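RECORD TYPE: inverse folding
INPUT: structure tokens
STRUCTURE:
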């Protein structure tokens, strides 16, 4: 992979993660998917390397990584397993980014310090049965009662909801037009009245538990509100802007992993007395797959450098471009990898069908790719 003007610490981190993946992730990647097993052992391994807490600033006990660092980590791990890559970046959107950008100093010292220990799992709860892209229809409510807020309602498709220690919950605290009146709370999953349901049966990212969660008069201390009351939609959008490039990083990793497998298979697979890699049709497919992936990678690290330099003008649109383009590329590339494998690619004996199943979610979560195109177009039409 081209070095993209990475700094020395980025290259060192990438090499360390690459070695760790080969030793700890690659041997269990297929088994995680086959058995739909949450690999709890990786939490400790990732935490010890500083990956779970990568974005925590040094002043709060963390490594002080930047967006480029997070993207490099996710890309390297996703080359072997998207499920594992999601675990590595778990705390970014559920805890670190919201606290770092909108938390009080007291919240930062407590929760970022806790995250810096590398053992905390978090989740984000926004989606409801009637609330996907349309957050204005949110039904979960939080009512003030003394020094606490009382939550009632439910959420669906909550990634890591059954294993999380804390969940960032979005709830309506007042009636308002559109997304106004929605607030964010950090909820301890040990709270009385919190529960989760049966794990969802997913097409991909198996081993990463997704569950519905329920709030039955769950009391949340007022100091656990993140950001201003009623303004959580703005909080969410800012967090998503920063996290969407990491989805692109996962997609780039998936695509590259699929290309590597397809290229190796094309060299080995014999038809008509020679390797299929010698056929122009296969060469054209491989070339297109690599070109598209490299274009996505260039876009990804251009975007991450913008954030690292705090160049926010146009960043939201660029983040949407990265997420949308890279995930579309991953879907196309992984599908083509299966095609190169032919009938073997459809079998679970080979990993490319898993890559194809995993790729799809990146076009859906963190805002569908249709929503990303709206964000991009609106930015274009405003300027």
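DESIGNED SEQUENCE:
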């Amino acid at each position: 992979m081209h070095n993209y003007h990475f700094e020395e610490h980025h290259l060192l981190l990438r090499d360390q993660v690459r070695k760790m993946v080969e030793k700890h992730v690659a041997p269990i990647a297929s088994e995680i998917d086959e058995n739909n097993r949450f690999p709890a052992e990786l939490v400790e391994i990732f935490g010890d390397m500083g990956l779970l807490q990568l974005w925590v600033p040094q002043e709060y006990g963390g490594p002080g990584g930047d967006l480029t660092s997070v993207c490099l980590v996710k890309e390297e791990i996703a080359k072997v397993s998207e499920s594992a890559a999601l675990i590595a970046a778990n705390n970014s959107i559920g805890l670190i980014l919201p606290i770092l950008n909108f938390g009080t100093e007291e919240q930062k010292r407590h929760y970022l310090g806790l995250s810096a220990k590398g053992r905390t799992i978090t989740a984000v709860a926004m989606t409801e049965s009637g609330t996907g892209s349309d957050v204005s229809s949110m039904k979960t409510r939080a009512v003030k009662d003394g020094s606490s807020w009382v939550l009632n309602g439910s959420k669906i498709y909550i990634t890591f909801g059954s294993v999380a220690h804390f969940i960032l919950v979005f709830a309506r605290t007042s009636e308002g037009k559109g997304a106004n009146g929605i607030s964010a709370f950090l909820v301890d999953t040990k709270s009385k009245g919190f529960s989760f349901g049966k794990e969802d049966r997913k097409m991909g990212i198996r081993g990463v538990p997704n569950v519905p969660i329920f709030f039955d008069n769950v009391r949340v201390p007022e100091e656990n509100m993140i950001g201003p009351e009623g303004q959580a939609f703005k909080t969410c959008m800012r967090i998503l802007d920063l996290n969407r490039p990491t989805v692109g990083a996962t997609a780039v990793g998936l695509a590259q992993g699929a290309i590597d497998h397809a290229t190796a298979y094309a060299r080995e697979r014999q038809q008509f007395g020679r390797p299929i890699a010698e056929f122009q049709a296969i060469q054209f497919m491989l070339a297109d797959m690599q070109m598209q992936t490299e274009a996505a990678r260039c876009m990804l690290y251009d975007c991450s450098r913008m954030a690292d330099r705090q160049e926010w003008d146009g960043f939201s649109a660029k983040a949407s471009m990265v997420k949308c383009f890279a995930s579309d590329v991953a879907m196309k590339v992984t599908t083509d990898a299966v095609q190169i494998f032919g009938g073997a690619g459809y079998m679970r004996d080979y990993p490319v069908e898993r890559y194809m199943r995993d790729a799809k979610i990146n076009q859906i979560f963190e805002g569908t790719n249709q929503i990303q195109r709206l964000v991009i177009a609106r930015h274009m039409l405003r300027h």
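NOTES: The radius of gyration is 21 Å.
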